[in-house]
Design brief:
By secondary structure, this protein is mostly beta strands. It has three helices and nine strands; from the N terminus they run βββββαββββαα. The protein has a single domain, classed as Nucleoside Triphosphate Pyrophosphohydrolase (Alpha-Beta Complex), CATH 3.90.79. Strand 8 and strand 9 form a beta hairpin.
Length: 164
């Protein structure tokens, strides 16, 4: 099992030097599964950052689908690994083909988006926290869905907001 650590982080200004900020897309088509987890009017998301730590958007938790695994199985596994919590997939919201660029590096993924719920406590603590998985540290937050609908914050992948 991977080492996972949860630590509260300041609401507006986490110490970015403590977070992993350098990331580049893989140069192949990638199949991923993400989960919309709700807490009242909020959804759980992780920060998408530039190399300098500046947040450019937010993305629901999830990850890659492994060979021989269905998309919903992958989501349950990823949530267990990332959040140390058990989850249940409620329904598939849709599938998004996501062509994007991050620091000039193109990325291409097929994203299976699901509505899901936690079935074990896992993350019951603060509104914002740091999650660590496989040596990467990212800021996570329960963000109001209204922030994305009004344009106050950006939700990735493109097209996901229309499915909610």
């Amino acid at each position: 099992m991977r080492a996972i650590a949860f630590r509260p982080c300041p609401a507006e200004n986490p110490e970015m030097e403590d977070l992993t900020t350098t990331w580049r897309p893989v140069q192949r088509l990638r199949a991923t599964a993400i989960g919309i987890l709700r807490r009242d009017d909020r959804i759980l998301v992780t920060a998408v950052t530039q190399d300098d730590g500046r947040i450019t958007g937010w993305r629901p938790p999830g990850g890659g689908i492994e060979f021989g695994e269905t998309a919903d199985q992958a989501l349950v596994r990823e949530l267990r690994e990332e959040l140390a919590a058990e989850a249940r997939v409620l329904r598939r919201l849709g599938v998004i083909e996501n062509l994007f660029s991050h620091h000039g590096t193109p990325g291409h993924e097929i994203v299976f988006a699901f509505e899901a719920e936690l079935t074990s406590p896992g993350i019951t603590g603060p509104e914002r926290f740091v999650v660590e998985d496989s040596g990467y540290r990212d800021q996570a937050a329960w963000m109001p869905l209204a922030d994305f609908r009004t344009g106050r914050a950006r939700l990735w992948p493109e097209g996901l907001l229309a499915l909610l």
